[in-house]
DNA sequence: CTGTTAGCGCGTTCAC
DNA sequence: GTGAACGCGCTAACAG
């Protein structure tokens, strides 16, 4: 492998091997049966000597395919997104594809993400931001014929697959359980985007509805579900209130787990003094004392999502739109 | 915007606007001053009408630049990697670049990652797998003139920048502190890759060294630092031993925090019965009871890394190799 | 059966 | 404001 400044091209390999570029391409792509053994060897030797590596841009241009997929998420470091990233990355790897990640944490970034996607930086995308894309943005993407899997409860399949969660019923069940066991003052520990976003939150709607149906006090919604430190502080603040809650429903398991800790640190018993319910069904909920009662899917995995995407990406003709719903349930353990 | 099957090209926009493709390109890239206002408007209108979006592959090919960077990490869902991903993503976003993520969790994947990188799927990369790349792999990458920032204590700059952490001294300090406060049986809660990998671990070396210097018992190294559930189980197992430890040094803060919980659940006092030290200096260590004593950087951020990379990526000529060392310290809070 | 010729994919930019 | 070359790999059609 000779050192040189410009990357060698198939032309140079061909020249060195004394063959045409076509032959080089056939050899390098394993299209054997078209090339004699001896020639094959010469080409490989030449490529090796020059340190030839094909240009992925040129290849993508010619193939009209990038062999990359894109993951659009709301943030990094959230259990569900991380798992999605892992599962998609594993599936991509298996298919010989790469993964681009775009973090969409503002409307401006959403626009930029849509632009990028329309420029065909990837052959398909899983779209799962915490704030769903606008209809117009989705249409822009399907308009550019990009294979798409959208994770959202707010849209129906329309040129793309949809993966949704049916969380409402399970949440209702959780709140009914809290009410039935005598909780009168239920606090809701919310994600930031539930408070600022325009999108409805099934969880919070279930909360408001339950308060209403059971004739329970004024709503008590505070932020703090996004991270553990925030959750701890939020719970501390809740406990300092004169109308201290006797139950906390946290929009994330991480926050709920932290709530249990904060309550214990404050000398309160869970669930006797304060009941705690989380969302997500993290493994970690099994090691708290008491174990965390939660609302969530049977297991956190996104193989389905990855499969839907690659079905579309690798398909010859556009497949029918599909829709998968993951049913959540109320998983009663010890904290409520 | 007319619906059509093939994506429109600059040629078609040019034709519709009655100008040349060169003009279209100039207009679309804001190279004004070369184009009259009226023409400009016509081009823009034509592009809009056709729903023109430029092909990023063609652009990359021509520009010899992908406007993408790559992040190579050992896994997803680990606090430090997640933060790195966030910081890199933010920097990339600002520069109008995208981020590809490659998860390298096996030697085979490392080879594939190096291949991809050599094919120029990105204009530069931050390489930070839990198991460092082999020298030959690094050389293969610098050989293809790829701007590179390597996070590793095991290599010296050589055509790439290196970001290292000086954790040894702080770890030694931590162990000395444990010994000085009378701990005689110190357990080490290790990452899986510390046990299986060939790479030396500064933390564990500091541990072994300390045992030796202070004449402390046989080593007690168990896996469990990788995730919270594993950490909880590992600590339970440690406590069931006849030679129960009186101190636990966990290779991650997440494990250390979990250890505190497990100890409390077992009815033991921290630090009186068992001292706990973590690694990483997570914010979360401030909300445990007692607050977590840890070894780590003053703050977990990777702006430096991102800056180094983009300095290289955006530089006209290859800059000098640089090396940044983040000094860790022993941060004594309540748990030891 | 083995290998070649030649054009294509599409945006960018220099010389006129 | 334009013509045309160029970046580089892929493959259909063709020749020996």
UniProtKB/TrEMBL annotation, chains A, B:
Recorded GO MF terms: DNA binding
The keyword DNA-binding appears for this protein: yes
SUPFAM superfamilies in the cross-refs: lambda repressor-like DNA-binding domains, Periplasmic binding protein-like I
Keyword DNA-binding: yes
Keywords: DNA-binding, Transcription, Transcription regulation
InterPro entries documented for this protein: HTH_LacI (IPR000843), LacI/GalR-like_sensor (IPR046335), Lambda_DNA-bd_dom_sf (IPR010982), Peripla_BP_I (IPR028082)
Domain HTH lacI-type per the UniProt entry, residue ranges: 8-63
CDD domains, per the entry: HTH_LacI (cd01392), PBP1_LacI_sugar_binding-like (cd06267)
PROSITE patterns found in the cross-reference section: HTH_LACI_2
Pfam families: LacI (PF00356), Peripla_BP_3 (PF13377)
Name of the protein: LacI family DNA-binding transcriptional regulator
């Amino acid at each position: 492998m000779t050192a040189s400044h410009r990357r060698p091209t198939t032309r140079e390999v061909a020249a060195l091997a004394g063959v045409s570029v076509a032959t080089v391409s056939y050899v390098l792509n394993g299209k054997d049966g078209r090339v004699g053994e001896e020639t094959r060897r010469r080409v490989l030797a030449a490529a090796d000597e020059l340190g030839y590596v094909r240009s992925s841009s040129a290849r993508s241009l010619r193939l009209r395919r990038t062999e990359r997929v894109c993951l659009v998420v709301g943030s990094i470091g959230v259990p569900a997104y991380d798992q999605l990233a892992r599962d998609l990355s594993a599936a991509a790897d298996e298919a010989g594809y790469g993964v681009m990640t775009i973090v969409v944490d503002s409307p401006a970034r959403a626009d930029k993400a849509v632009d990028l996607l329309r420029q065909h930086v990837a052959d398909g995308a899983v779209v799962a931001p915490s704030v769903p894309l606008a209809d117009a943005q989705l249409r822009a993407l399907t308009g550019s014929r990009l294979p798409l899997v959208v994770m959202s409860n707010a849209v129906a399949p329309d040129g793309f697959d949809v993966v949704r969660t049916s969380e409402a019923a399970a949440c209702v069940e959780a709140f009914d359980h809290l009410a039935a066991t005598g909780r009168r003052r239920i606090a809701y520990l919310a994600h930031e985007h539930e408070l600022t976003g325009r999108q409805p939150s099934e969880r919070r709607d279930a909360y408001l509805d339950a308060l209403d149906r059971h004739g329970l006090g004024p709503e008590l919604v505070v932020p703090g579900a996004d991270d553990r430190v925030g959750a701890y502080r939020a719970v501390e603040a809740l406990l300092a209130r004169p109308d201290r809650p006797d139950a906390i429903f946290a929009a994330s398991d991480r926050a709920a787990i932290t709530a249990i800790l904060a309550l214990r640190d404050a000398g309160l018993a869970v669930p006797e003094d304060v009941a705690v319910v989380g969302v997500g069904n993290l493994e970690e909920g099994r090691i708290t004392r008491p174990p965390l009662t939660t609302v969530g899917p049977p297991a956190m995995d996104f193989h389905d999502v990855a499969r839907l995407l690659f079905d579309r990406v690798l398909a010859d003709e556009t497949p029918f739109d599909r829709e998968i719903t993951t049913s959540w349930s109320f998983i009663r353990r010890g904290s409520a």
